[in-house]
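Quarterly update, task 2.4: oxidized coenzyme A-bound model.
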Amino acid sequence: MLKQVLVPDLGDFKQIDIIEVMVAPGAQISVEDPIILLESEKAAIEIPSPYQGMVKKLHVVLGDKVSEGDLILTMDVTGSGAITEQKLPTVDDTTPEPEPIVERHAGDKELSPPPVPPASNNGRSRHNPHASPAVRSISRELGVDLTQVKGSGPRGRILKEDVQVFVKAAMARNRSGPAPGLILPETQAIDFSRFGQIETQPLSKIKTISGAHLHSSWLKVPHVTQFDEADITELEEFRKEHLKDAVDQGFKLTLLAFMIKASVTALKRFPQFNSSLDPSGENLILKKYYNIGFAVDTPSGLVVPVIKDVEQKGLFDLAEELEQLSAKARDRRLGKSDMEGGSFTISSLGGIGGTAFTPIVNTPEVAILGVSRATMKPVYIDGEFVPRLILPFSLSYDHRVIDGADGARFTHHLSTELSDIRKLLL
Ligand code: CAO
């Protein structure tokens, strides 16, 4: 049976703003489920449903002003249990925190209790949490989305204390992120075609995903970058000696495999570089595994496959896996498991060029190594300049976790390892 639900007697209130529409067409609701929330200068008023059934049509929208007798919605009413007369529901003067009261009359049937949230498909769905107008009002002031708050009151009702607990937890989480209240200026749309010809190209999916991650890491982590260099003359001789062996086995032996190995010796020596901050920002989670990610430049964008358990692998194993994962990355065949679980990342631009760069920490890791191009340089040794192959590299780290002195110790250790191939291979 179709029934119209009207705005009940609101006492002295007229032309009140609808600040929340809590049901949508198709929703199954019970008697007493709130359907709209009104707010005047003095009070918040929750209008409950006088019937049980399905919302057929909504006749109001958010922001409408309504008075007594205005049509709110049409319902396909099922069963019994309708209130005989629509009465003024909860009026909240924002001081106490009342349970919503619907006046009942002698002879009325017992009203069905409000369903326990989160109910699936009825009036109190995830989009319509069970809370009093006072709690709704506080939540609005604090910008809290009530659908995210767990109610501890009777039948899952959200209490003022639940909102307070939620806000405290959100603030604790934020301690490990950017300062609360950090608001970035919006990017203004500019019509560049006013100045000349243009072409608009959508970013690849990989770029949109990695871009968002890089942006978040850049904003959340106080970055410091330490620059250093290593004399890799001997290392390069060793690499060249073993190049053929590797090629015979079907892969290339590049500098990156040595960098991965050297990084793990440094990570073992300085465990805080192989860690993550927990979400509270108060604990360091030290990892006892060494999974090294490496940035691969693909036609669709940057991806970071991860070589797992590096400490258990030899140089040739690493070189082979590097090549396999790079090929997989370029053919877009990397699976989720190939890219997860990293504890430290290396970004090598040495094959391309450049003398130094500042990589962005790949959160939740706390440090990243950037490798630039090695060049022959005159180095002053024992009273004379001798030509040596010098590798410039940089280490960006999270200054909340790592002090500058440790940053310098780490790169110095790495430099020593790379400069002495025997040490590295032992
Ligand atoms: N100095 C001098 N030469 C270097 C070098 C270095 N640091 N690193 C590599 N090379 C040389 C290699 O020996 C190779 O020489 P040959 O062709 O004569 O054998 C050549 O440069 C090309 O190497 P490569 O880049 O193919 O191999 P790699 O193992 O060093 O790197 C990979 C593999 C996947 C890391 C690389 O191909 C790549 O994608 N790099 C880009 C990473 C990137 O985009 N980082 C930026 C991320 S934003 O922070």
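Highlight for this quarter: The chain has three domains: 2-82, 133-174, 222-425.
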